Amino acid sequence: MKAADLAELCALAALWGGSFLFTRIAAPEFGAFALAGLRVIGAMLALLPVLALRGETRSLAAHWKPILWVGVTNSALPFVCFAYAALTIGAGLSSIFNAASPLFGAVIGWLWLNDRLSASRTLGLVIGFAGVFGLAWSHAGVKDGADALGTTLAIAACLVGTVSYGYSANFAKRHLAAAAPIAVATGSQIGAALVLVVPTVLLWPATPPGVATWIEVALLAVFCTGLAYVMYFRLIAHVGPANAITVTFLVPVFAVAWGALFLGETLAADTLAGCAVILLGTALATGVLQRQRWLRLQRG
């Protein structure tokens, strides 16, 4: 990558890491559905002008059905799941589970799209899933006083959201290869907003959230969702999807840092170990380690 691309990759990781922080703060006041609804509606409003300026409305019109479905599986469902999880577990732990999305994507691609799994990728899946289930079993990073059932449901919600991300990547690969990335980004938020608008209204919090929380939701929607999507798809165009997906490894670093800095969260040693195992498995499963080794051999 060029220095500018690497800087944008780090900035994107910082934004997506921040999404777990803002979700953790705002979820108790708004609730999972209302927070997710506001997030996608705000992102949609931020992205629509970008779509119009780039002249990609025709691409959205041509692929609207699969794009709207991606909005359900890549935004509405996982956003609700991670907002629900934020009611019980910390931002850092949620981001670690989220980092396993490429693992589920690799398995779904193998089962659905017949993507080939090499020996190293298979080993990565085994290692990565061992880390995921080991971390879930240990119930690490749970706030004081949380009950075992609530913790289990929060972790299950994270895993549902993670699986949904993995499915969405494969669905988009199969059905939206010809669609403009900005059309997918904007249209998916429109689809998510359509799905969540009714639950958002029906489950609106009885106690009005404070001004500070509204500001945090605005930052979550505009920057951590709308702007982040634009940056991500721009990175795909500049450095390719294989390099862009390496942002997955940086997001937990920022999420843990933001959680420690602003919320005073701490992660136990077994949580950090589980994070390392998941990231190692993901690196193998996505071919990142193999690709870096090949590049070093080429340079040598």
Report on this model:
It is built from 14 helices and no strands. The mean pLDDT is 87. Helix 2 packs antiparallel against helix 4, helix 4 runs antiparallel to helix 8 and helix 9 packs antiparallel against helix 10. Helix content is 82%, strand content 0%. It is mainly α.
Please mark out the parts with pLDDT under 50 across 5 or more consecutive residues, or reply none: none
Structural class: mainly alpha
What number is the mean pLDDT? 87
Q: How widely separated are the two ends?
A: 18 Å
Q: Helix and strand string, N-terminal first?
A: HHHHHHHHHHHHHH
Shape: globular
Tally of strands = 0
Number of helices: 14
Task: Please give the radius of gyration in angstroms.
Answer: 19 Å
Which keywords apply here?
300 residues, 14 helices
Helix and strand arrangement:
Blueprint: H1 3-30, H2 32-53, H3 57-62, H4 64-85, H5 91-98, H6 101-112, H7 119-138, H8 148-175, H9 181-202, H10 211-239, H11 241-244, H12 247-263, H13 269-285, H14 288-299
In short:
By secondary structure, this protein is mainly alpha-helical. The protein has 14 helices and no strands.
